[in-house]
Amino acid sequence: MRANFVLSEIGVGLRRNVTMTLAVIVSVALSLSLLGGSLLAREQVTSMKDFWYDKVQVSIFLCNKIDAETDPACARGAVTDEQRDELEAELKQYDIVEEVFHETAEEAYAHYTEQQKDSPIAAVVTPDQMQESLRVKLSDPERYEVISTAFAGREGVHSVQDQRALLENLFQLLNGVNIAALALMALMLVVALLLIVNTVRVSAFSRRRETGIMRLVGASSFYIQMPFILEAAIAGLIGAVLACLILVVGKSFLIDGFLDSRIQVIDFVGWDAVLSVLPFLLVVGALMPAVAALFALRKYLKV
């Protein structure tokens, strides 16, 4: 195979279909940047789950005097010191319980007023309205049901709350956004594949005389198809490089330059995660158009 001939044919094909080639590059770049962003978003959600679930506590809220008068869950009266001590001692016997903290009503009131200091409701709340609680840190937050089943409905217990449930809605929202990005990526990928097939078809049709001559002189199918396949692969690779640049710029300016300093409670994905995704995008960007071109040539280029 003469490499210079193949390279010249690639240059001719790219020049003849420059508009369609640019469309392929842009669509591949957008679809692969969405793919890379989705992979990083999935890793970000996993990292956030590991971080926050490790800090999750189970809160056992105890009945106070107001609850005893108004809430059916506390119909047997407010919690006594003996009941509270018994609950705390029983909790410490569970192997999944790492620590138990007792938060008094005064401490709960102080935390509430600090968090809601700008709310007008905070001014009318009094310490006797707050519930004391037992804050339980578990070694395995997934086994929350063990504590909930054992202590819910007990005398002196108002309710058992797993803080993880408060985070589930956030993670479900993030997963939903990730799925939407993947769906959009799949749509853009289909558009890119259709453009690649159409570009190969137009290129093969415009060069049917050259391919006919090559066929008459005994050129192999692989030799005839190679320029078309490489054209698609080069366009896809350029699109993949642009997708990598989009991810790098997004990490540098959007995450490191803007979000990281303003949202300090989130440990954003690092450069190691970004750099691990880039080679995958480059491989997909080169192989996907090449394979699409190979299948398209079987139909549009009779060799």
What report would you give on this structure?
This protein has helices spanning 3-16, 18-53, 65-70, 81-91, 105-115, 144-151, 163-206, 208-216, 221-262, 271-300; strands at residues 57-62, 97-103, 133-138, 157-162. Helix 1 crosses helix 9 (221-262) and helix 2 packs antiparallel against helix 10 (271-300). The chain is of the alpha+beta class and 303 residues long. It is built from ten helices and four strands; from the N terminus they run H-H-E-H-H-E-H-E-H-E-H-H-H-H. The protein has two domains: 3-52 and 168-301, no CATH class; 57-140, Alpha-Beta Plaits. The model has no long low-confidence stretch (mean pLDDT 77). The longest helix is centred in the middle third of the chain and has 44 residues, at 163-206. The radius of gyration is 31 Å and the shape is elongated. It has a four-stranded antiparallel beta sheet.
Helix content: 55-70%
- Work out the oligomeric state of the chains in this entry: single chain
Report the order of strands and helices: HHEHHEHEHEHHHH
Number of domains: 2
Residue-averaged pLDDT, rounded? Answer: 77
Describe the global form: elongated
Percent of residues in beta strands = 5-15%
Query: Which sequence of strands runs across the widest sheet?
Result: 2-3-1-4
Any low-confidence stretches, pLDDT <50, length ≥5? none
How many DSSP helices? 10
Terminal residue distance: 17 Å
Alpha-beta classification: alpha+beta
Evaluate the radius of gyration. 31 Å
Q: Total number of β-strand segments?
A: 4
> Strand count, sense and closure of the main sheet?
4 strands, antiparallel
